[in-house]
Amino acid sequence: MIHRGLRMSTVVLHIVLIIGACIMALPFVWMVLSSLKDLSQVFVVPPKWIPDPFIWSNYKDSLTALPFGRAYFNSFYINMIVVLSQLVTCSMAAYAFAKITFPFREPLFILFLATMMVPGQVTIIPLYLIMKNIGWLDTHLAIIVPSALLNAFGVFLLRQFFRGIPKEMEEAAIVDGANRWTIYARIMLPLIKPALSALGIFTFLGMWNNFFNPLIFLSSTDKFTVPMMLNLYRGMYSTDWTLMMAGASIALIPVLIVYIIGQKYIIEGVTLSGIKG
């Protein structure tokens, strides 16, 4: 009887999750279907889900109407620099907070985490003034450098993994003559690969979809990222929704690829389970 009750609860749970997944997928399905419609069919009442006819040329037109090739290149190289930089800076800071004893370590870590509670909109004006004074406005450095140097969530995530590593491993390495840099690079980093992978994926997804910072700091079209380029389809008096939906569908492909490849690392990384014995 107990097993039957458990099976029923499992079935109900799966049904609820499937319904929730379908509801969450509806906007993406609508986006893809709208990208294949004529502009007159997008806001038809009642809504018409299936395009008639399918206009596949919307995808070609969305790529040729604006310099999307340059935008994709900008987004990719900015993402790669920020991801690699954050993996280095966050892992170094996390290792220090987890394994090195120094004065005021815990208060400093709490203060560092407190920055997560400050919305980016609050600090954007001081950051803008700083970028203006050093001459980085309308350059990718204004987007890359602040993101590469500070990620409190990344430090917290990696610190939890570092704390799960037995201190005996570090002590044994010190006895063998290893210094801090050797321990960090050759012993600690290989043990936290799941967390590094999860952080890299989170950073890539966040930077790829970042619209606010490029909107503030960039003004030249040749420096725009993909979200900024998509925004150009929105005119003052009209918006070409079909081309925008086509461009958004294409922009979604790298995100889906990264998530499909790295979903097991995301699940393993956010569990904060440390290493397994």
From TrEMBL:
Which InterPro entries did the record assign? MetI-like, MetI-like_sf
Q: Where does it reside? A: Cell membrane
What topology does it adopt in the membrane? Answer: Multi-pass membrane protein
> What's the source species for this entry?
Paenibacillus glucanolyticus
Q: Which UniProt keywords apply?
A: Cell membrane, Membrane, Transmembrane, Transmembrane helix, Transport
State the organism's lineage: Bacteria, Bacillati, Bacillota, Bacilli, Bacillales
Q: Report the residue ranges that make up the ABC transmembrane type-1 domain in this protein.
A: 72-262
Transmembrane intervals: 12-33, 76-97, 109-129, 141-162, 183-208, 241-262
Identify one Gene Ontology CC term for this UniProt entry: plasma membrane
GO biological process terms, alphabetically, are: transmembrane transport
Q: What is this protein called?
A: Sugar ABC transporter permease
Primary location class: membrane
Respond yes or no to whether keyword Transport is given for this record.
Answer: yes
Q: Which family does the similarity line name?
A: Belongs to the binding-protein-dependent transport system permease family.
